[in-house]
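debug: dumping io for the single-chain case to check the tokenizer round-trip. Nothing else runs in this session.
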Amino acid sequence: MDDHSSSTNIISDPVTPAFIESMVDRVIEHIVDKLEELDISLDYIAAALIGTDALSLGVTQTVKGRAGHSVSASPAPIAETADKKH
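debug: decoded output
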């Protein structure tokens, strides 16, 4: 047994299609998790803009779809700091 074969043979198993598929599945799962975190963050922002809470917005989206909004939701008032004259 020579030193060269033991130092270069770090991976003993060949890279198989099953291994590649497993790695791709892990990457996709990680990306989906991050997108779900982003979606939750955007729900909080959208809820603040339309004057509701993020949980209600999430439930409404689940029932009515992404473009769904509740009938009672009304836009939150926007501060008029720039237009006010003192």
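debug: round-trip ok. Residues 17-50 form the longest helix (34 residues).
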